[in-house]
Design brief:
Elements lengths: L5 E6 L6 E6 L5 E5 H5 L7 H23 L6 E13 L2 E14 L5 H14 L1 H5 L5 E8 L3
Parallel strand pairs: 5-6
Antiparallel strand pairs: 1-2, 2-3, 4-5
Helix pairs in contact: 2-3
């Protein structure tokens, strides 16, 4: 199988320092800092990158599950919301909410929900993040 990589560089103390995150493919590089991670400051953060990975992976997993049952989606749009909270262990990803809507010709609402849940269970990133206390899915079928 393939190996994917990314790198992080950090300079300074936790609260006053800053760093850069880079994807190995070179398609993204961005600044991150304590404020961008814990205070909604400018820049990116590891949790935002996890959200992007989860949204992308789920959308592809749902497309694959749909295809295995003869459905071709017009489009799938997924938002992943990664919640960072405080626990006794320190800052923790406490929940991830997946919000997906899709237009899929010829699918029933019942099959749509069943296949969306199957995609959530089989999504590679969902499985990698199994230690997160809750990963929820809200799936909306758009009728055309």
């Amino acid at each position: 199988m393939t190996i994917r990589d990314a790198s992080a560089e950090w300079h300074g103390t936790l609260k006053e320092g800053s760093g850069r995150l880079r994807l190995g493919s070179g398609v993204f590089e961005g600044a991150y800092s304590f404020p961008s991670r814990f205070e909604n400051g400018p820049g990116t953060n590891p949790e935002e990158l996890i959200a992007a990975a989860h949204a992308g992976c789920f959308s592809m997993a749902f497309s694959a599950v749909l295809g295995s049952e003869g459905h071709t989606p017009d489009d799938i749009r997924t938002i992943a919301k990664v919640h960072l909270g405080a626990t006794a262990a320190g800052p923790t990803i406490t929940r991830i909410e997946l919000e997906m809507e899709a237009a899929i010709p010829g699918i029933t609402a019942e099959n749509f929900e069943r296949l969306a849940q199957k995609a959530k269970a089989t999504c590679l990133v969902s499985r990698a993040l199994a230690g997160v206390a809750a990963i929820t899915l809200t799936a909306t079928l758009r009728m055309r």
